[in-house]
Amino acid sequence: MEKIAFKATKRDVSTKGALKKLRSEGFIPAIAYGKTAEPTPIAINEKEFIHILKHKGTSIIVDLDIDGTIYPTILKAVQKDPLGDKVVHVDFLEVDLDKPVLTKIPIVIVGESKGVKVGGLLKHMLYDLKVEASPLDIPDKIEVDITELDINDVVHVSDLVLSDKVKVLTPLDVVVAGIGHPTKEEVVPVEAVAGEEAAEEAGEEAAEKEQKEETEKK
Question: Could you list the residue range(s) of the whole structural domain that residue 213 is in?
Answer without folding.
Answer: 187-218
